Amino acid sequence: MSINIEIIDNFLSAEDLKELQSLDLKEAKDKEMSVHVQKIESDQVSGSGMSKESVKKFHQTYHSVAINILNKLNSKKTNLYEY
Fold first, then answer.
1. Which spans in the chain are helix H?
2. pTM of the model
3. How many C-beta atoms lie closer than 10 Å to residue 50's C-beta?
4. I need a surface site. Which of 18, 38, 57, 78 has the fewest CB within 10 A?
């Protein structure tokens, strides 16, 4: 099995990296998983984990770049993505 990867130095801006690192997310208990999902629909954000403003900013800044990487590494997976 082969795996395609792409390494991108400084993918996140220093400011965005600091913001992600500073998130105060609830710790998962032993043998459990904590999942934080954010969804944007019709410009409305729902979910938990970070502020709505940050979700919109991250989406605006990184979504198209991430989709382009996915398309480059495995275009069949891009077709499965719903947005």
1. 14-21, 52-73, 75-78
2. 0.77
3. 19
4. 18
